[in-house]
Amino acid sequence: VQSAIGEGPQHRVKITQSFFMASHEVTQAQYQRVVGRNPSCFAKTGSGSAKVSGMETSRFPVENVSWFDAVEFCIKLSGMENRSPSYLLTNITRSSGSITSANIAILNGDGYRLPTEAEWEYACRAKSTTPFHFGSQLNGEEANVNGNFPFGTTSKGPNLARTTTVGSYQANAFGLYDMHG
Prior knowledge:
Layout: H1 28-35, H2 67-80, E1 87-95, E2 98-106, H3 117-125
Antiparallel strand pairs: 1-2
C-alpha cells in the first residue's frame, strides 16, 4: 500500500526505544509561551489573519516554523521542566526571529525531542495498514486537507484553506489527533 503522496512501499521497521508524543500539535499559545513569539500565518497578526478574522487562534497549531525552530522549542520546553536537552544548537542564524541555519548536536538528554520518521509513521498509522489511520479515502471530512482533490474517492469535501483548532478531527487508535492534513 502506498500513501497519498506516493511514498512507499510500506516496510517493517523496528523501533528500539519507547517514546511519548503529545495528543495533538503544539498550539500557537504553547509556542508563544515557550519561545516568546508566534510565527504563524493563521494568527491574529499573521499574514493570513484575514482568513481567521474573529476566530480564537490560540488553540490553532503553530505553523510556519523551521525544523530548527521546532528543535529550539524542544530545548526551551525541556529547560522549563528541568529536563536535560536532547539537542544543542550553536552558530544560529535567524531571519525575522526564525532560525534559518544552525549547527546541531543530538544529545542523550531526557528532554523533549522530535520523533524519528519511523516513530512518527508508527504513531500516525496506529497499527493500521491503510494509507490513513481512518481508512483509504480522504476528502477533507477526515482531516484538514483541500477537499477539492480527494484521494480514494470522487466525493469532494471541504477546503478550509487555513488551519483550525487542534483536535477538530477524530483521533487515531492511539488517541493522537490531526496526524493527517
